[in-house]
Design a protein that fits this description.
The structure holds two protein chains of two kinds.
Chain A: E1 4-13, E2 16-26, E3 31-35, H1 42-50, E4 57-62, E5 65-66, E6 77-80, H2 92-103, H3 107-120, H4 136-148, E7 154-158, H5 166-183, E8 186-191, H6 194-200, E9 203-208, E10 211-216, H7 218-223, H8 228-233, E11 240-246, E12 252-255, E13 260-263, E14 275-281, E15 286-288, E16 296-305, E17 309-317, E18 323-324, E19 333-339, E20 349-354, E21 359-363, E22 369-372
Parallel strand pairs in A: 3-8, 3-9, 6-7, 7-8
Antiparallel strand pairs in A: 1-2, 1-4, 4-5, 9-10, 11-12, 11-14, 12-13, 14-21, 15-20, 16-17, 16-20, 17-18, 17-19, 21-22
Helix pairs in contact in A: 2-3, 2-4
Chain B: H1 6-33, H2 38-42, H3 54-64, H4 74-105, H5 111-120, H6 130-139, H7 146-154, H8 157-169, H9 172-180, H10 185-196, H11 198-213, H12 217-222, H13 231-239, H14 248-278
Helix pairs in contact in B: 1-14, 4-7, 4-8, 4-11, 11-14, 13-14
The structure holds adenosine-5'-diphosphate and magnesium ion (MG).
Protein name (chain B): sn-glycerol-3-phosphate transport system permease protein UgpE
GO cellular component, one term (chain B): plasma membrane
Subunit structure (chain B): The complex is composed of two ATP-binding proteins (UgpC), two transmembrane proteins (UgpA and UgpE) and a solute-binding protein (UgpB).
Chain lengths: 373, 282
């Protein structure tokens, strides 16, 4: 068991740069999830760690040893592929045993390890079957068994659950987590699904366009997103964004309409005077309040009743009840997640207040976070 | 079709039976002719039912052959043909499996050029290059040998192309998984690719065995020694005996015998083939 060091790793295909220098330090036994939209380079990064893709620049170290030039089999890692990549003509037993046979283990040692893994994964009744005679979840387990028997320093997963139906995905997610915990093996897990990412990760790596935008615990990523991209990607429904300004004192936050929101307790260090900012608020951090305390006023356009919650999509109003254009994901519309017991009708005007510390201020030019109030 | 109308069912069977009859009738006539003495066949009316000379005709052929056509025993001819067809079929498969493997799984300079050159040889069957090929085989001293009979026929663009197409459908991740498991290229080839190609191999074996079995011009050219006569050559020689009536009963018996090994190969391989198709792997 060992940590993984990814240092300034760069990947180029010809002239196209796909990974722009990513650094991640994975501690021994840690579960790291790399999450990001499709095409952002997650698989490429993982495959460079696996040794299936050449590393253009930077270094990958496993257990303190730089492995850039090592074949996958010499890196002491195991990988679960998206479509499992089980050998179709081999039995479940042989699928798991194949790597060990090549490694030259004795028959008895192989049997012992495979039996142990099969017991752990409840695959014992299926050892003689061919992969095609198994359900999706069972195939998934075989793919994991193939990794476990190798007793590697780290597991690599590339979207292992995306071929399963929603219910099975939740179940296998739990199984993967439990298994990783009980074995204590370092894991690097790639997914585009933010729920999977949040639930599995000790730490999240949010990637965008070949760059790691933020590396932190799921809760920190959620509470203190480092960029507007991270803020919009993590969380559902997505965060609301509104154009605003940071005052010349580096403290006052106003909406572009002129409506003051709230002031930062301390000026932002090196704020450089007045500047345009993007203000982000999660729908679940908006609460219905009395008119005097309201920071934002919403006119409900669409109301979705979800039982536990009521999701209100509406437009932002200024103090003269005129509609203020905002640049959110959903165009002009902001979302608010209110408790299920409030009754809201379409056309209602809602005075809302942002929870303490849940107002995120981003530099509009760079997209970087300036403060959370 | 789930339709179930009695009239259509009957019609279907009638059409199928008619087809079977059309295909089988000449075979039946050949077999019947092989069981009669020569005079019956020269009388002008072809018999439709077996005669009484089955055992005599066949045992004469298998042991002594036909005196007028060199007297090579048909048993030996069958053996020669079988060895030739087998060597050609297995040789073609072995060479094609490996060259397709090289083309699909390795990045080497001029890879696509290599592929297209192989592909172009489709336009150069033995018949086209027969003189230069003969020259080469003769210079190498391979006349009158199984090597001379088979090696020039082994290179096969068709089979290489078919295996290439199959390899392209094998998911890349399978090769990567094998690589993670520590399998080198040759291990991957023998442990995974070849077993997965099983059904393709069976199909190509059938086709290539028949191709080898039916060779006529090339064996005629490279063998002068009677002991290398193949069955197809033998039949032709029996039909064209000079200054005499062809011994049709023996010719037909030889033809019937010549039919059996290919039929056996098709039957045996078809099982594997269908089995492979039913339990779709991949
Ligand atoms: N072999 C390749 N040649 C050229 N570009 C590639 C190759 N493989 C991946 N890419 C590009 O690299 C980018 C990242 O791909 P990938 O890592 O598969 O994304 P993800 O797994 O995050 O969806 C994509 O834009 C893709 O087009
Ligand atoms: Mg991917």
């Amino acid at each position: 068991m060992a940590g993984i060091g990814i240092r300034d790793v760069v990947k180029r295909y010809g002239d196209t740069k796909v990974i722009h220098g990513v650094s991640i330090d994975v501690a021994d036994g840690e579960f790291i999830v790399i999450v990001g939209p499709s095409g952002c380079g997650k698989s490429t990064l993982l495959r460079m760690v696996a040794g299936l893709e050449e590393i253009t620049g930077g270094e990958v170290a496993i257990d303190g040893r730089v492995v850039n030039r090592l074949e996958p089999k010499d890196r002491n890692i195991a990988m679960v592929f998206q479509n499992y990549a089980l050998y179709p003509h081999m039995s479940v037993y042989d699928n798991m045993a194949y790597g060990l046979k090549i490694a030259g283990l004795s028959k008895d040692a192989i049997r012992e390890r495979v039996d142990k893994a099969a017991r752990m994964l409840q695959l014992e009744p299926y050892l003689d079957r061919k992969p095609r005679q198994l359900s999706g979840g069972q195939r998934q387990r075989v793919a994991m068994g193939r990794c476990i028997v190798r007793e590697p320093a780290a597991f690599l997963f590339d979207e292992p659950l995306s071929n399963l139906d929603a219910k099975l995905r939740v179940q296998m997610r739990l199984e993967i987590k439990q298994l990783q915990r009980s074995l204590g093996t370092t894991a690097l897990y790639v997914t585009h699904d933010q729920v999977e990412a949040m639930t599995l990760a000790d730490r999240l790596v949010v990637m965008n366009g070949g760059v790691a935008e933020q590396i932190d615990t799921p809760m920190n990523v959620y509470l203190h997103p480092a960029t507007t991209f991270v803020a919009g990607f993590i969380g559902s429904p997505a965060m609301n964004f509104m154009p605003g300004r940071l005052g010349g004192d580096g403290r006052a936050i106003t909406l572009d309409t002129g409506a003051p929101l709230r002031a930062l307790p301390e000026p932002i260090v090196g704020h450089g005077g007045e500047k345009p900012v993007t203000i982000g608020v999660r729908p679940e951090h908006l609460a219905l309040v009395g008119q005097p305390e309201a920071e934002l006023t919403l006119r409900a356009r669409v109301v979705e009743t979800l039982g536990a919650d009521t999701l209100v999509h509406g437009v932002l109003l200024d103090k003269d009840a005129a509609i203020v254009p905002v640049a959110g994901e959903g165009g002009e519309v902001l979302a608010a997640r209110l408790p299920g017991n409030v009754t809201v009708r379409e056309g209602d005007t809602l005075p809302l207040r942002v929870a303490e510390g849940a107002l995120h201020v981003f530099d509009r030019e760079t997209g970087r976070r300036l403060a959370d109030v | 079709m789930v339709e179930n109308r009695p009239f259509l069912t009957v019609l279907r069977h009638v059409v199928l039976l008619a087809g079977v009859a059309i295909v089988l009738f000449p075979v039946w006539v050949a077999f019947v002719a092989s069981t009669h003495p020569q005079p019956t066949l020269l009388s002008g009316v072809a018999p439709l039912w077996p005669g009484d000379r089955l055992v005599e005709n066949y045992s004469q052929l298998l042991s002594a052959g036909m005196a007028q056509a060199g007297g090579t025993p048909v048993g030996l001819m069958l053996f020669n043909s079988f060895v030739m067809a087998l060597l050609i079929a297995t040789g073609k498969i072995a060479v094609s499996l490996i060259s397709a493997f090289a083309i699909v799984y390795f990045r080497f300079p001029f890879r696509m050029i290599a592929f297209w050159i192989i592909f172009l040889t489709l336009m150069l069957p033995v018949e086209v290059r027969i003189l230069p090929t003969f020259e080469v085989v003769a210079d190498l001293g391979m006349l009158n040998s199984y090597a001379g009979l088979t090696i020039p026929l082994i290179a096969s663009a068709t089979a290489t192309f078919l295996f290439r197409q199959f390899y392209l459908t094998v998911p890349d991740q399978l090769a990567e998984a094998a690589r993670m498991d520590g399998a080198g290229p040759m291990r991957f080839f023998f442990d995974i690719l070849v077993p997965l190609s099983r059904t393709n191999i069976a199909a190509i074996f059938v086709i290539m065995f028949l191709f080898g079995w039916n060779q006529y011009l090339w064996p005629l050219l490279v063998t002068t020694d009677e002991s290398f006569t193949t069955i197809v050559m033998g039949i032709y020689r029996m039909v064209n005996v000079s200054d005499e009536q062809p011994q049709w009963h023996l010719v037909m018996a030889t033809a019937t015998l010549a039919l059996l090994p290919p039929v056996a190969v098709v039957l045996v391989m078809q099982r594997l083939f269908v089995k492979g198709l039913v339990e779709t792997e991949k």
